[in-house]
Amino acid sequence: IFFRCRRYMTFARQLYALTGQTAHPHDAPAGHASCNCIVQSQDDALRCYVHFEVLKVRAPGLGALAPTEAERNSNATGPPMIRVPGGAAVLRALVDFIYTDHCALALLKRAELEALADLSARYQLPGLAAHLHRRLDPVCSPLPDDAGLVEADPASTDPSEVRPCPASCTLPTLQGDILTLLEHATLTDVVLWSPSGGFEVATCRSVLAARSEYFRQLFS
Fold first, then answer.
1. pTM of the model
2. Which of 44, 100, 111, 177 has the highest Cβ tally under 10 A?
3. What is the DSSP letter of 139?
4. Which residues touch 51 (CB under 8 Å, ≥6 apart)?
5. What would the mean pLDDT of 67-80 be, rounded to a whole number?
6. Are 62 and 162 in contact (CB under 8 A)?
7. Beta carbons of 73 and 80 less than 8 angstroms apart
8. In the CATH scheme, what is the code of domain 2-218?
9. For 71-92, what is the mean pLDDT?
10. 48 touches 39 (CB < 8 A)
């Protein structure tokens, strides 16, 4: 039943299913082996096992805090950790949005919504900022025309480099950001190739594991 149902899961849910969460005291690690980064709430109540390459394209401000490949390889004790301001509920909502383009704002208190709004600006998540603005308005002051929105500079080879996005720009989506991820060789971590030649493509373990049971087991 599990495998039959999984065929009908959206890519967002398949990717999100690879992540994991632990509560204090964090006795056992969680998340698929493709998870290579941990984000932890400031109060240490929640840890989320995630993919640094997803953070880089979905939340550039947060992805910029992720370690370099050399730093990751030198860390033999486990995935590197990024501490995020706020409590468990705020972190859970942040990760939910990064991986699915949605989060349950109705479950958050006003202070948590405001904290999440601060993080959406700090980590450059215009979609989340717009989502929160619709929820909080008119409690929060209106966003300016450009709303702090950002978009990747097409002339740049680094998706973490962003520039102001005009008010008319389209908000980024998970699907679009993942396509951007696959177009940046510096963020891909595996190459598929044919022994007979004629085929070679760079991609990400997280994407392959999300889409294929074969690769999910292979990378475990």
1. 0.80
2. 177
3. S
4. 18, 19, 34, 35, 36, 37, 204, 206
5. 66
6. no
7. no
8. 3.30.710.10
9. 83
10. yes
- Angle at Cα 98 formed by Cα 95 and Cα 103, nearest 5°? 70
Can you tell me the distance from the alpha carbon of 87 to that of 114, in angstroms, rounded to the nearest whole number? 12
> Using omega within 30 degrees of 0 as the cis cutoff, is the peptide bond preceding 138 cis?
yes
Cα separation of 203 and 215, whole Å? 12
Q: What is the DSSP string of 64-132?
A: TTSPPHHHHHH-TTSS-EEEESS-HHHHHHHHHHHHHS---GGGS-HHHHHHHHHHHHHTT-HHHHHHH
What are the tens digits of pLDDT across the range 18-30? 999 999 888 877 8
3-state DSSP call for residue 205? helix
Which amino acid appears at position 209 of this protein? A
Domain ranges of the chain: 2-218
